[in-house]
Design brief:
The complex is a heterodimer. Chain A is mostly helical. Chain A has a single domain, classed as MetI-like (MetI-like fold, Orthogonal Bundle), CATH 1.10.3720. Chain A has 14 helices and no strands. In chain A, helix 4 runs parallel beside helix 9, helix 4 crosses helix 13 and helix 7 runs parallel beside helix 12. Chain A is globular. Chain B has a single domain, classed as MetI-like (MetI-like fold, Orthogonal Bundle), CATH 1.10.3720. Chain B is built from 12 helices and no strands. Chain B is globular. The chains are: A mainly alpha, B mainly alpha. Chains A and B meet through helix 1, helix 2, helix 4, helix 5 and helix 6 of A and helix 1, helix 4, helix 5, helix 6 and helix 7 of B.
Chain lengths: 291, 282
């Protein structure tokens, strides 16, 4: 009986399922099918099935592997920095000080800025001739000559990471702050009476309380960071000398610049595969901790 | 003891000032650039404050003229609004009833929600290739409504998940007593649950709006003219062009950033709690 009532309502899910199948399910399947063909961007030549040829090529392609490495380095660097900086800032603005309300409100500005605007803003700041960064560092006598931040291979990825951290640490800090404010005051008082010092209070009262929120922030940031495209593409298009070409930019270039949808799809499938592995490892770690 | 207290206070204020400078100086500089003349912006080293306020970039971008920057910018602004609002409308329309079923009658089919969340984690490039092929075959490239439909890949799983998590907090007993009074499906959904969900749905809608406003990848691939090109693409084109009118680029950024920054400043609390509401449990 209960089951009957329940099934009656399945129709209400139908529109959502239909749209998801059209824009997510079916394209995903077609990407997988495409990855076994030599399909091009335009319908010039007839499409041929090439079997696993694209895959064997992909695994031998050093450029692809190094683009995955760049995605990995980028994701690791931004997520670690954002978590540390965001938590520190969350703790800082949780202290009482004059102007607290204004500072807390302004925290949202970096996060609210559209990604494209953020990328373009930092591109202007890093401009080698008229950028604010060079001008400031030069006037403060920190650098003797202007630096080409975005075209010196050793500096570019770091400059992009800095720009991404500036935008996204603020999300982490706001999530941490919201969670800090829900700690019951008496818990901290009780710890004080028990003679716990500041570090112990953080370790045994504050940290356990904010941990679930930190996990949410961590997941949100990892999901975004491993599929990074916009900020890098706008700031450098993957250059100089492909030193900032992430996995997604590599796939984009293969499919749309080189007009090879088939092998582009292969790389996309492999990237999805790697991301799924990361998600699964993360889930496993979470389960372990719960036990 | 007292000295230690004062030291701590001083350190606290130094840290707050450093934080404040870090947060606002890049965006403040963007605003200053947008009102500086091009001479101020191309001296070496820079003139940090403009000699006089120059609003010519704003005039140029907000003026409609054939083949001007203003033309593509204003079309981008219009298209961004159309695309974002259509996306949010479609997403809410289909996810609200679905979320209700997931929340009220959870059973095996809730796996659909789990799958939706996993797809949310995958890179758009995994769907983009066949979608491009299809849109180009049926002639739907460069179309705001087609783009909005594609944006559902990003927005819909997110809406379904957040709406369901928020709905779980509304007691089922309210509906049960209404059923006894003979309420039908429509009454339960729209007269009982919807009014109570309004604040949550408002937050979900705003977050979805910000996501669509922010989107660049699909828009860059699937649009190419004033018909459907969105603001992020217009700005990216401005920034990558050879022209060195930095004030103009900065102005485009300031205008594009204004709606989300204002929404953020006004509604920070509900946006952040909306974003984490579902996550803490799931």
């Amino acid at each position: 009986m209960e089951e009957d009532i329940s099934n009656k309502y399945s129709i209400l899910i139908a529109p959502m399922v239909f749209i998801m199948l059209t824009v997510i399910g079916w394209p995903l399947i077609r990407t997988i099918l495409m990855s076994f063909t030599n399909e091009g961007l335009m319908n010039l030549d007839p499409v041929k099935i090439v079997g696993i040829e694209n895959y064997t090529n992909a695994f031998q392609n050093k450029d692809f592997l190094s683009s995955l490495k760049i995605s990995g380095i980028f994701a690791f660097a931004v997520v670690t920095s954002e978590m540390i900086l965001g938590t520190t800032v969350g703790l800082l603005v949780n202290q009482p000080f004059k102007g607290q309300k204004i500072v807390r409100a302004l925290l949202i500005v970096p996060w609210a800025l559209p990604t494209v605007v953020n990328a373009m803003m930092w591109k202007l700041i890093y401009n080698p001739e008229y950028g604010a960064l060079n001008s400031m560092l030069y006037q403060m006598n920190i650098i003797p000559n202007y630096v080409s931040w975005l075209s010196t291979p050793s500096k570019t990825l770091g400059a992009i990471i800095f720009a991404d951290v500036w935008k996204n640490f603020s999300l982490v800090s706001m999530i941490v702050l919201a969670s800090l404010q829900s700690i019951p005051g008496h818990q901290i008082e009780a710890a004080k009476i028990d003679g716990a010092n500041a570090i112990q209070r953080f370790r045994y009262v504050t940290l356990p309380h904010i941990l679930p929120s930190l996990q949410v922030a961590l997941v949100l940031r990892i999901i975004e960071a491993v599929k990074v495209f916009d900020i890098i593409y706008i700031m450098t298009k993957g250059g100089p000398a492909n030193k900032t070409r992430s996995g997604t930019i590599f796939i984009y270039q293969e499919a749309f610049t080189n007009s090879r949808l088939g092998s582009g799809a292969t790389y996309a499938v492999l990237l999805v595969f790697f991301i799924l592995i990361i998600i699964m490892i993360y889930m496993k770690l979470l389960k372990k901790k719960d036990n | 003891m007292n000295n230690k207290r004062i030291m701590q206070k001083i350190l606290l204020y130094i840290a707050v000032i450093v934080l404040l400078i870090y947060i606002i100086s890049p965006f403040l500089w963007l605003i200053i650039m947008s009102i500086s003349s091009s001479t101020d912006l191309s001296t070496k080293p820079l003139n940090w404050l403009p000699k006089k306020i120059d609003l010519s970039s704003y005039k140029e971008l907000l003026h409609m003229g054939k083949n001007t920057h203003g033309e593509s910018f204003l079309f981008g602004l219009r298209n961004s609004f159309i695309t974002a609002i259509t996306t949010v409308f479609i997403s809410l329309l289909v996810t609200f009833p679905a979320a209700w079923v997931f929340s009220r009658y959870p059973n095996k089919r809730n796996i659909i929600l789990k799958i939706a969340i996993v797809t949310f984690m995958l890179p758009p490039v995994a769907y983009a290739l066949p979608i491009y092929k299809t849109l180009s075959t049926i002639g739907w490239l460069d179309n705001s409504f087609a783009l909005a439909f594609v944006y559902c890949t990003l927005v819909m799983p997110f809406c379904a998940w957040l709406t369901k998590e928020n709905m779980d907090a509304i007691p089922f007993e309210l509906e049960e007593s209404a059923i006894i009074d003979g309420a039908g499906l429509f009454t339960r959904l729209f007269k009982i649950v919807l009014p109570l969900m309004m604040p949550a749905i408002g937050t979900v809608a705003l977050l979805a709006l910000l996501m669509s406003w922010d989107e660049y990848f699909y828009a860059m691939l699937f649009t190419n003219s004033n018909n459907a090109i969105t603001l992020p693409v217009v700005i990216a084109n401005l920034a990558s062009g050879r022209q060195a009118n930095y004030g103009l680029i900065a102005t485009g950024g300031v205008i594009a950033a204004a709606p989300p920054v204002i929404i953020g400043l006004l509604l920070q609390k509900s946006l952040i709690s909306g974003l984490t509401a579902g996550g803490v449990k799931g």
